Every structure is written in C-alpha cells, then in structure tokens.
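Example 5.3 — Phosphatidic acid phosphatase type 2/haloperoxidase domain-containing protein
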Amino acid sequence: MQSPSKLHFKWPVPLDLTALNPINSIRQGQRKRSNSKGKARTPGNESVAALRTSFSISQSLRTLRRHKWCWFDLQHLFLACLCSFSLFIIGVHAPLIKTAAALGYVLLLLMPATRQFFLPSWPIWTYLLYFFSSRYIPTEVRPHIWVKVLPALENVLYGANLSNILSAHTHPVLDLFAWIPYGIGHFANPLICSILIFLFAAPKTLPVFAKSFGWLSIFGVTMALVFPCTPPWYENKYGLAPAHYGMPGSPAGLARVDALFGVDMYTTSFTTAPVPFGAFPSLHAADATLEALFMSHCFPKFRPFFIFYVGWLWWATMYLSHHYAVDLVGGSLAAAAIFFTARTRWLPHQQLEKAHRWDYDFVEVGEMKKAADEEYGYGLGLLERRETGDSDEWSLSSGSAYSSTVIGSDSGPASPTEDRRSGESSFSRTTPGSPVSQLNGVSIQ
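Solution (predicted structure tokens):
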C-alpha cells in the first residue's frame, strides 16, 4: 500500500537585505556614502566637544605648516587686507597703537586656546573696524547718494510707502514694543544666540554662525558704501531733496524712546553714525533672519517663535522710520543665501536626542543626501561606515571635526559602532538560516 505524500514545512529563511544592494564593489564596513562628506578623526580619544587649552605658538606653527591650502583660504588674506585698509584710513595719529593692536590680534590667532574663538570670529571684528572707520573715507571718492530709488521701488512693489503708513500713528506703548527688538534685541541677540548655540547645539556650529554673521555684516556695510540710499526718516525730514555727505543722521522713532526714558541712548549715536545713508540692505533684518535660521536649525521646536521675532523686527524698523520694506526684503534674502550656503557645506547636523554639546560623540556636516542604495529603496545607507580624514582648524570648514568613538547606545540610531583600537566597524552580518541576526546591536526578527 502506497503511503500518503507528506508536506514538508520549514521556517522561512530571513531575508538577506545585503544581497539586494546594487553596490557590491566595496566591503560594507568600509564603504563611503556617495553624497555626504567624510568624517575627520579627532586626535587620540579627545572628545569632539573638547576645547583647546594650549598657549603654545610653536604648536600652531606646526599645524599651519601641515595645512593644505585651498581657495577658501583667500578669505584670511581678504580679511587681513580689509583690516589694514581700515586701520590706514583712520588717520596718521598713533601709529604705534595701531601696530600694537594688529600684532596683538596676530598673537591671539597663533595661540590655540585663543585661536579657537578669534579665528572664526575674525569676520565680526573686521566688520566692526570696517564700519567705524568708514567715516574717514574721503568724500571725493564716495559715490552718489540715491534719494528717490527706494521710495520708487517701494511704490512699484507694494503700491504704497509701508513705512510711512505704519509710522503715521504713534503711541508710547507701540514705541516700547518696537524698541525691544530694534533697540535691544539687535545688539544683544548675537551674544545670546552664540551662548545658546555653544552650550546646546552640535559642536562646531558656533564657528559657522560667527563666520556667517561676520561676512553678512561686511557685505551689508560694503553695499551701504557703494550704493548709499536714504532711509524713510530722510524723506520725512527733507522730502526728495538731494543728499550730501556730512549731513547728520537721525534716530527717527528712537528719539521718542529717549524722551520717554529721559536718557540719551540713541540720539547722539545715530546722529553721528558712520554710515547714515546705509538703508539698503537692512542689517537689522539681515541679522534677525540669520539668527532665526540658525536657531531654527539648532532648536526646531521653537521655529514659530523665531519666525514671529523676524516679523516683529520687520514691523519695528518700518514703524520707527529706519527702513523701507524693500530694505528688509534685501537684508533677509542676503541672510538666507549665506545660511543655506553654510548649511550645505559646513553646518553640522543636530542630533535632537542630545541635550548639550558634551553629549555628542561625533558630528556630520553638509547636506545628508541619499546614497545610491537608499534611492533604490533598500535603506542600507544608514548602516555604512564613512571613511575618515584629517581635520584642519585653519580651513573655512574647520567646524567639520568628528569623533569616531561611540559609547554605548546613546549615539543615536544612525551612528556607526567602532572599535577604538582597530577602527573597524563591528557589524554582525546577517547569516542565512539564522532566525535572529544582529546589526549594530539591534535585534532584527
């Protein structure tokens, strides 16, 4: 008698996702993501958030000799030339003091403990020197002052002069409400943002913010010098009469704030401003927009507040008769261009599970584009280990320093696990036939 046929049941073999990966040329443990920047090792076991404490000039000189020069290093030459020009036009008085100031700053750049702060912020100090020394530029070489351009653009783009409309009705409460962002926030926010970014954002974010802020300010002052335009207070005071150099500036609506408090906080400083006809672009709007973009990148939960603050400052500048709406648009567009350029090339990514900078074991910079295997839909790019290179603190992208050490499981879901001694990625590869496999310590059933 023939026995009945039997059906054989077996447990299904786990799917080996690595077999579906179209990229098979390099080992998975050493493959580099095609569209992201590599990591640079931090020497030894130094934390990526560590600060330098050495004052050895010889150490800086050795680092400078090892530096690989590139086109971005021309920024340092440009800043040095702009500082020299600003010191030169101030006048012939006190040459020893100006020479001592220049040598003192060079000394700050040569000591590692001070260079980590003064090299990224060099554009800011250059901007301040450039701004206050611009009053000494001879009148003969200065361009024509444009009086009718901004009012005409305002009417063409918006159909009316928005600044005059908003400033037509004033009130002490509105004066105080406008004074907070324009008279206090504009001067205090750079310091406040720097402290918050340094403490709670990813390491190396602050140098990118400082350089962006400084170059944006240098651009704003340069535009004010080569394309001087009169602000709304000039139209309210002089109409469309031609302007000339030597005319005093004006605090405009801030004079009411001085009268309200009975002190001279703005009247004298704005009347004797080095650049009274620097209406376009508005550095108030540019700085607020840049700060809002960086803070939104670092603290995305508070993005609605940052957007509100920019709108608040826009209203305040027009209410106080310091800028036309077209000035605000120009300043914000310049800030956005600088921010998105910095984010694409140099700005570190935030790891939202980290509470402060000392929680970071590594950072990544640049846009996180999908690797080829992710574009095919297999999603294995997150498991790749990226090759490492050497960081260089003298380069523009000196913020892209990384630590290759990951401790425990606190490094986040996309962080590679490495052995400190060998530097090899410790992956437990998926084995066909095994019901459970381990990938980076995560069980996959």
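Remark. The chain has three domains: 9-48+361-445, 52-119, 139-345.
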